[in-house]
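User: I'm new to structure prediction. If I give you an amino acid sequence, what do you actually give back? Let's try with this one:
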Amino acid sequence: MGGAGVVHCMKSKIFIDGSEGTTGLRIYERFSKRDDIELISISSDRRKDPAERKRLINSADIVFLCLPDAAAKESVALVENSAVRIIDTSTAHRTEPGWAYGFPELSQEHRHAIETGNRVAVPGCHATGFISLVYPLVSGGLLSADYPISAFSLTGYSGGGKKMIAEYEAQNRSTDCAAPREYALTQEHKHLKEMQAVSGLLRKPLFSPILGDYYSGMVVSVPLHMAALRSHSSVAELTEYFLAYYENERFVSVVPDGTQNLYGGMLAGNALSGWDGLKIYITGNDERVVLSAQFDNLGKGASGAAVQCLNIMLGCDEATGLVL
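Assistant: Good question. You get back a string of structure tokens that encode the predicted 3D arrangement of the chain. For your 324 residues, that looks like this:
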């Protein structure tokens, strides 16, 4: 469904509001070898100065928001220059009217909205994996929108930000960190809203995320009874459907035979750490199937997706500065 775009990008002034966080640092890293980006920096002692942030935001062509939700909303309110384009990596605007959802592979409409929009919300990491699997089923009529869907996710600790990274990398850390830990036990994970809304579901999915003792990378899996699908009643048919859906997409690839491409019959959460794409596996049998998305929570799940959206907005090759 994708287009490669042109090769060269226009020179652009970029301001990263929140450049000290894990997402902001990864975006900064992806810009290190680009000569088409002029980064506008803010001195460390003025990072929380509203007047200075306002000045820099309105002097940029594109602003990345790598902030908590409340701070992201405050930054958007500081925009006075109508030409300024915003790429928000927080949860704040992902289901808000007027904001393009930054997942271009979902449809030509999504890609066009990113290309032409001034406000783009980057998907959440868990949501990226879930939506890559569920959106094609619901939009294609294979799965009913009222199906009571469930999912689980295995993720590295970098997704929890600096505080969690420090907890896991501390010399005298808790022994609990050595074991996988399930969280969001109240079924109120912050990504559920976009998982439901973007996928077109009538109810929120049951979702169980699991935190692992490794830095980055994740696998999001959706188990299904094949009887729930309105068509494509075999693993082979379902695989062909996904292969056709994501045909020619460089950032999303479907593994033709999931079971033959697993290491020791297993999917590792950290296998794609440092990579900016996403792989889809369809495993199981013609009675029960598991759809899995494997990627880096800091790559296609955050910073990589944000830079991909920037490239689309600038009209240049989508993979510029990224690792594929």
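You can read the tokens as a compact description of the fold. Here is one thing that stands out. The two ends are 18 Å apart (CA to CA).
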